Amino acid sequence: MAAAESSSKQAHIITGFPRRAMSWQRELANAFTRNDDLIESLGLDPALVAPASATAEFPVRVPRGFAARMRPGDVNDPLLRQVLPDNREDVHAVGFESDPVGDLDSRRAPGVLHKYRGRVLLIATGACAVNCRYCFRRHFPYNRDTAARQGWRDALAYIAATPDAREIILSGGDPLVLATSRLRELSSGLDVIAHVRRLRIHSRVPVVLPERIDESLLDWLGGLRQRAVLVIHCNHPNEVDESVVRALRAIQSAGVTVFNQTVLLRGINDSLEVQTRLAETLFDSGVIPYYLHLLDRVQGAAHFEVADPHARALYQAMRRDLPGYLLPRLVREIPGAPFKVPVL
Fold this sequence. Notes:
Layout: H1 2-15, H2 24-29, H3 35-41, H4 53-56, H5 64-67, H6 80-83, E1 107-109, E2 112-113, E3 119-123, H7 153-160, E4 167-171, H8 180-191, E5 198-203, H9 205-208, H10 215-222, E6 227-233, H11 242-253, E7 257-263, H12 272-284, E8 288-293, H13 308-321, E9 329-332, E10 341-342
Parallel strand pairs: 3-4, 4-5, 5-6, 6-7, 7-8, 8-9
Antiparallel strand pairs: 1-2, 2-3, 9-10
Helix pairs in contact: 1-10, 1-11
């Protein structure tokens, strides 16, 4: 544990985090779970409240710290538009599906997806710190299909029997809403599987709930046998405040490589100014731009889609304005394809 203790102490020195654990669970429990409460807190017109049908299957969840970064009185705030239910979610759009990326066809065990060579993805939990309205897994059957059940037993058995599984990807939901003790259960099981070399974590938590990046989590990250990679999900530069920067720096101080992936969203981040500022803001925080995803065509999210011609023109402009190391890859996911498919 010496390495973990050292990384934790280093994180404390760099970030100024208190030595006592911060109550991220309290922050999560106190999140907005009603869209009328969120609207009222921002001083917006109550008429914006979407019908109950829009939230029956996919409820509202917005941490108050994330909501505090929104502009009061602005219905077009780019952070608000990502999380506020919309009556257009009830419109059945042609070409939009409940499983747009073929997750269920790639299922190999409870909560275990194997799509790409060398990588196995675990649906760690169905819980998230924030419910983004464009989420491609908003219809996923989490109630019967998560990998953390039974102490990760089925997932670890599949990984052990799959020599090609050199990298394990933790996804969800959001794996970082699990207690650190549950994450330790998984990494302890992976430690005895020699062919596993990397643990990649996909999470929006450092952006929407930076309080979660506490010393317990940093100890775990710093003590991993596998090389640790974190892919955060940040769509707009306004999502990054001082608390997020501190959390990202602390994660890096634990020896974790941090990337970002963004979803291209109509009217939210589909401009050169926003994409350029996002790339530079993230890089200033030590985060490497990784993917710019075209929207996964999940039912209920058609109003977020950016047309291909606009996406291509925007990306060409980004190529002109950004150095190569700040340019994410413009991709889309196609069910059955052996990799994320480049758009250009």
